[in-house]
Amino acid sequence: QVQLVESGGGLVQxxxxxxxxxxxxxxxxxxxxxxxxxQRPGKERKAVACINKSDGRxxxxxxxxxxxxxxxxxxxxxxxxxxxxxxxxxAGTYYCAAGSDGLAERFLCTDTRIYDAWGQGTQVAVxx
Length: 128
Known about the structure:
The protein is mainly β.
């Protein structure tokens, strides 16, 4: 059974840092890409960043570029989202999702329909 489990969310002060983790299990196909999404109250789920499995290529939405870093530890089947210089607008529920390898480019990464499995989400709150 395919499963993604996010962790690492919590309360962070503006300007602070947080690292989210997404642990994947149950995939029969070893080659898959992973995306992180954020959903704010009353808003649609929005892509944050994506990473390929085969070549490690990454894609970042404009709001995350330069502040967030997506990475993966294939030995641990875990994908991370390092969030630095956090802003109040970064608050929301963060989800990871898995799909076919090669999705780390703008039109694939941002399309929620291409993903095969989603985690339950982890909350990030930003407040001083």
